[in-house]
Amino acid sequence: MLRHVLILAVAIALAVPGVISVTSHALASPEPPPAAGALPSDPEGPPTIVPTASPSPGDVTPPVTTASGMGARWRNDTATVRFAATDDLSGVAATVYRVDGGVWRIGDEVQVRAPKDHSNDGEHVVEFYSVDNSLNQEAAESVTVKIDTRPPHFAWKSVSPGILRRVAPVTCRFTIDERSGPVTLSYKVTDQYGYHAVSKSGLVRKAGAGSVQIAPRYKNRKGFVPGVYRIQFTLRDEAGNQTVSNRRSFRNYRVVSGGVWRRVRGAGKVVALTFDDGNNAAWASILSTLKRYKAHATFFPLGPYVASSPSLARRTMKEGHACGVHGWTHSQMTRQSPSQVQSEWLRAAAAWWKATGRSPVPYCRPPYGDMNGSTTAASAAAGFYRIILWDVDPQDWAQPGAGVIASRVLSNVHPGAIVCMHLTPQTAQALPTILRGLRSRGYKAVSLPEMFHAAGMR
Ligand SMILES: [Zn+2]
Question: How much distance in Å is there from the Cα of 106 to the middle of ligand 1?
């Protein structure tokens, strides 16, 4: 049979000079090679084609084969390339293909796989041709299958300015590494408590160094309120592989007007427990109790406690609580100059920033609740535009006993109450009773940002 095929092939080759090289290539016998230059890279050579029907006399036209299924784009799934061959006169005997110069095989389709270990990533060349029953061979054609299972790589370079003093663009610089070309970016900016500030999608950036400018405005075009904001990018390449960047922060310390809060109306049945001053054992115990009761609170330790207990500060933020400043020296703010007021706040804020990468802006609590218009203005000018006083005061600093502290809180609580307490052992001891009592009365203990958010404020 092989002999018959070869004879026929040679006969056709001789009769049609134009197909000589193609024919000899297609039917190259394993040994001895007819001519070194005509050998394919596959040492076995293409398979021998056995006609499936009788040759049609006078058929000198090779079949026509088309391939489909590879897609034009990079992909991260298996591609099934299908070959469709037609031959009018004698019919198609077989289609032959190979991938990346490998072994020639007979078949109507081939799968190019996309294993998740990236081992088959890259551009794959699929060569194919068909032979008809008269052993006319088509010139080989090729298509490319582009496999990319690796997500884009994103590396932050900078966020500038790191501290914003007015509503101005924030420029994010980064490097993108991606083999398949441009990537589609989106970003999400949240405040440090995770509340949405602004987002955008559908940005396109080339691989290499790039940048995106973020306008620090909310959807209603108002500028971001002071605070710490976090930026996160999501990148998607042409194949659909996705990368989520880690977060980078910038601080917004622009000046807005200040306000004094003793309670928050319109927040529903929530209560803001707040803790001032400091005592590390009490602080740790209060955190554990809050965790046990799935409650959140706001902490106003004096700056030195934050500076000397960074791990407690970090734990506080990690467990979902909020922080504020109560100053560094616990002095009466109305006796201080505006710049002294600001330095009390900013020194304590720097301790929070150093320990946790979070900012107590916009919450400040003047010691003794001692404040006036001038201290409010000075505080707001440093970003602390929410002066947090209280309207439930169990006077726990006087150490009246845990039971008294708990009953004073529970008998005065109301929706939107701000409860002023202290980081003291008696308060820590009273807290489980307070939290159980709040729960049984249908209240939820929340942090100040959660309470403002519940009332529809940023
Ligand atoms: Zn105090």
Answer: 84
Which residue type is seen at 69?
Answer: G
pLDDT digits (tens, 9 = 90+) for 201-233: 999 999 999 999 999 998 888 889 888 999 999
Write out the H or E segment, with its range, that includes residue 37.
none
Q: Which of 300, 384, 306 is nearest to 351 (CA)?
A: 306
Measure the CA–CA gap between 422 and 437, rounded to whole angstroms. Answer: 19
Distance CA 367, CA 302 (A): 10
Separation CA 363–CA 384 (nearest Å) = 6
Helix (H), strand (E), coil (C) string for 355-420: HHCCCCCCEECCHHHCCCHHHHHHHHHCCCCEEECCCECCCHHHCCCHHHHHHHHHHHCCCCEEEE
Pair of tokens at residue 124: 């794959």
What's the CA gap between 197 and 150, in Å, rounded?
31
- Residues 338/341/345/347 CA torsion (nearest 10 deg): 100
Burial profile 342-365: b = 16 or more Cβ within 10 angstroms, e = fewer: bbbbbbbbbbbbebbebbbbbbbb
Ligand 1 centroid to residue 277 C-alpha, Å: 5
Q: Where in the chain are all domains bearing CATH 3.20.20.370?
A: 259-454
The pLDDT score that the predictor gives to residue 36 is 35
State both tokens at 33.
């090679």
| 183 CA distance to ligand 1 middle (Å) | 52
Residues 6+ apart with CB under 8 A from 4: none
Q: From ligand 1's centre to the CA of 432, what distance in Å?
A: 22
Which one-letter DSSP state was computed for residue 38? G
Both tokens of 229, joined, read 């904001």
Residue 22 is predicted with a pLDDT of 32
CA dihedral 371→372→373→379, nearest 10 degrees, is -10
CA of 331 to the centre of ligand 1 (A): 9
**Top-tier CATH class for 153-252:** mainly beta
CATH number of 2-147: 2.60.40.10
Whole-number Cα distances in Å, 450 to 234, 267, 272, 455: 26, 9, 9, 9
Catalytic residues: 276, 422
pTM of the model: 0.76
Regions of the chain with pLDDT less than 70? 1-43
Q: Domain 259-454 sits in which CATH superfamily?
A: Glycoside hydrolase/deacetylase (3.20.20.370)
DSSP letters for 61-74: PPPEEEEESS-SS-
pLDDT at 255: 84
CB under 8 A, 24+ apart: contacts of 408-412: 409/434, 409/437, 410/434, 410/437, 410/438, 410/441
